[in-house]
Amino acid sequence: MLMIKDYIRPKSLEEAYELLSSNKNSRILGGGAFLRLGSKRINTAIDLCDLDLNYIKETDEGIEIGAMTTFRDLEKSQILKEYFGNLLADALKGIMGVQFRNYVTVGASVYSKYGFSDLITALLALDCTLVF
Ligand SMILES: Cc1cc2nc3c(=O)[nH]c(=O)nc-3n(C[C@H](O)[C@H](O)[C@H](O)COP(=O)(O)OP(=O)(O)OC[C@H]3O[C@@H](n4cnc5c(N)ncnc54)[C@H](O)[C@@H]3O)c2cc1C
């Protein structure tokens, strides 16, 4: 069973980083889909939902995708469709159901480096740069 002692929604990236690095039993929460399967004791669960990290935006250098962006956001994005056609939507559409893809996050999937990840395979083909 997953046990969480404290749940915190930091108001800045600096605060989140401090919470994460000050205790080795702190964990960042993405959608929680994978975390909830394990039986762990988390001292501080850090929810990044107040940090405006859910975005897909076009800049002069390329397209930026925030860590809290969900798989469903990627699937529906007009910007991604315009540049890459259906590549990302096709890679993700077979993963569980829409409800699941509505809360599973890009940051968690990339950080966790799952060997089975359909997202990582698609991102590799797009020659992405990761910013941690
Ligand atoms: C039942 C099931 C079936 C799945 N099937 C597939 C599939 O067919 N294809 C596929 O590609 N994927 C599949 N996945 C994986 C899924 O797509 C996600 O990659 C996975 O659930 C992690 O996303 P999450 O947001 O739920 O992360 P969480 O469960 O919240 O977190 C997972 C890990 O990432 C860490 N983390 C979370 N956010 C961040 C962040 N911003 N920065 C650093 N670390 C972070 C957490 O601390 C935790 O260690 C499946 C997952 C489940 C549970």
The amount of beta strand, in percent, is 15-25%
User: How many separate structural domains?
Assistant: 2
What shape does the CA trace take? globular
Span between termini: 29 Å
**How confident is the prediction overall: mean pLDDT?**
95
Number of strands: 5
Compressed to H and E, one letter per element, the order equals: EHEEEEHHHHHH
The helix count comes to: 7
Question: What hetero molecules are in the model?
Answer: flavin-adenine dinucleotide
Low-confidence stretches: none
Main sheet summary: 3 strands, parallel
Computed Rg = 15 Å
Task: Strand order, main sheet: write it out.
Answer: 1-3-2
What class would the helix/strand composition place it in? alpha/beta
| Helix content, binned percent | 25-40%
What does it look like?
This protein has helices spanning 13-22, 71-76, 78-84, 87-92, 98-101, 106-112, 118-125, and strands at 3-8, 26-29, 41-47, 56-58, 63-65. It has 132 residues and is an alpha/beta fold. The protein folds into 2 domains: 3-47, Uridine Diphospho-n-acetylenolpyruvylglucosamine Reductase, domain 2 (2-Layer Sandwich), CATH 3.30.43; 56-125, no CATH class. The structure holds flavin-adenine dinucleotide. Residues 27-35, 37, 67, 95-96, 104-105, 107-109, 111-112, 114, 116-119 line the site of flavin-adenine dinucleotide. Flavin-adenine dinucleotide binds at residues 27-35, 37, 67, 95-96, 104-105, 107-109, 111-112, 114, 116-119.
